[in-house]
Amino acid sequence: MKEFKVTPIRNGTVIDHISVGMALKVLKIIGVKDEVSSTVSVLMHVPSKKAGWKDIVKIEDRELDPKELDRIALISPNATINIIRDYNVAEKFVVEVPNVIKGIMECSNPGCITNKDEPVEAEFVVESKKPITLRCVYCDRITTDVAEHIR
Amino acid sequence: MSAGFKGMDVVSIRDFSREQIEHVLKLAEKMVPIAKGEERSVLLEGHVLGSLFYEPSTRTRLSFDAAMTRLGGRVLGFDQPAGASVAKGETLADTIRMVDSYSDVIVLRHPQEGAARLAAHFASRPIINAGDGAGQHPTQTMLDLFTIRKEKKKVEGNNVVIVGDLKYGRTVHSLSEALAMFGADLTFVAPPSLQIPKEHLKQIESLGRKPRISGSLEEVIKDADVLYVTRIQKERFPDPAEYQKVAGMYRIDLPMLKDVKRDLMIMHPLPRVGEISSEVDATEHAKYFDQAFNGVPVRMALLGLILGGLK
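^ inputs. structure came back:
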């Protein structure tokens, strides 16, 4: 019998300490969909020393851009990113909420012009990072429930 | 400060500082004789205004037309999208890019919130927001401020009671923030289902004002210097039963005005649908038709500044 439920990866990115239940949304945010040519493992509801339970996402053979990864902070402020090279953690950092969010969320206002068939991406200014409060650049609507509006 | 006006988009009243708004109001005062047709002007001769009204409007559209025409400019556009390429499914972005090449400034009324900001994104010419859904209507706010200042000499210190649809009414949100910025005291009167949204209340409080919230007009009308009445807008109600319940709750008639201050001024962005009884029109309190006229000089001042004819 093997020890590990999921084996350590040799090269790639491990997103750890994802708020429990958010792993699939994290995959959406970082755009892991069709164009993946390596293994992606998702662990959900894993015991965590810090937070009780957490999710983990491991992407093999890909080092994700930290700027892209900062968006994860929107739904999982305590997530950590580990860049793995040859089984070792080569870089490690905590995600940070960016000041402007573009293209990954839709506006919570159904009457907002960005929810119609116009050639623009919804764009938000981060008014507050704790708790996360976003203001739509177009209609000014305030959104606090980010996970609900990830596309 | 006025150097900043030329080419500026007018999307939200928040785009303006108090000093900038005061500058517009001061210039609007000078425009009054031209707006009345007593003096002639060729200030904007050769300029073209693109007027795009995706929703019905009488006052806003006609007063922009009047303002541009009185200053010697021309207006093109549509007042209902039915006959335009919009009806064929053209995006707002495409329509704007086209009109952008035909005109020097674009006035836009659109049912979707954020439409004016989107238009500003695609247009190289300045965009003036003439109302975007339940969103902003900055030129209405300016003419409201102009009207109060004209009657009361200043906005500061006046107790402004705003009654009606404070939730969906687009004029109310822009106006209440501007009034707070100018130091007026605010009282909001509405049934709980139509009270001012929390985010607007927060914004007002962040400007250092503490508005009164009430459900009863009788309770607060005696102390009012300005009574701003808004229409309960049927088209913004998802449920007709809820509309019926609240429509006509705050009707202004002569008995209602029994104990008010002598110089109380009553305003209404119009159209009214029974909120103010016609018997009130003959009283000194009624200022809503002056208010409707004031849209012309205020929009003249703004057009003059944006197109560079005024400094």
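The mean pLDDT of chain B is 92. Chain B is about 35% helix and 15% strand.
thumbs up if we can close this ticket
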